[in-house]
Amino acid sequence: MKTKFLMMSAVLALMVTACSKDDSKSSSASDFSADEAKMNSKMDIANDDVSDLVEEQFDATQNSAANRSAESSSSTSNLPSCATVTRVPDFGTQLEPGQEVIKTIDFGTTGCPMNNGNVLKGKIIITFTYQPGATSHTINYQFDNFYHNNVKFTGNKTFTRTMTSGHPVVVMNMDMNATFPDGRVIHRVGTRTREITAGYDTPNILADNEYQVTGNWTTSFPSASDKTSTITTPLKIKMSCIQQNKPLIVQGVITFQRNNRTATLDYGDGTCDNTATYTVNGNTYTIIIGN
Fold first, then answer.
1. Whose C-alpha in 19, 92, 127, 174 is 20 to 30 A from the C-alpha of 279?
2. What is the distance between the alpha carbons of residues 257 and 168, in angstroms, rounded to a whole number?
3. Residue 33's beta-bridge partner residues?
4. 37 phi and psi, to 5 degrees?
């Protein structure tokens, strides 16, 4: 059964191409370099892929219990076929309310590709308490030698999912490091809140799902001061864009601040496309988004 809480890649890979100026000028202001933007976006992609997989594993446990059916290690639609899942208590064991559940997703050591092309290695360990009657759940997860597209992630994340007005609202708390192949490390702390706004009443259809995302976070880069990111106009996610092989964020604005300077990323008017508008120091550039 397709999960109703998927949100595929959020802030996707940024490749700056100048509209009227060359790339050296686009990154001349050290406050917001193109290279740094790409690093930041890689972390965003990984955050969303991991969150989708974790939430889907949580849903698989909840849905199996609600339907009184046995949960299996391959009961989720977003899980790559090359990954394996183990559970404590073991699959097939009846869960009791208040019991701790630990699920481990193992992607192996050679590279396990997702449907969106991103390649994973290592393990994600998920922990939550089985509370079938609760309206709010807290899910924790951590990494064990985990790589997303050759970027190593350490740290932990927690999200709380609460049923509000008959649909789920997920608040994600982040505190994690990303180590890039060249050895640079960036650290991110913050929160993201996402709410399903359409499609929740059709649980077997993913394509009609739409989401609204808000939040803010701080990212620390090597040899640079911290940068804050705030979603100043809620991001709109349309799952139907996947049918056109397009990125899923179609609207909304993220504002970046550092050293009293500001830059913005505007995702457009709601159309499924692969471009966004990046504005810094009064100059506007085209951003190509995608894997």
1. 174
2. 31
3. none
4. -60, -40
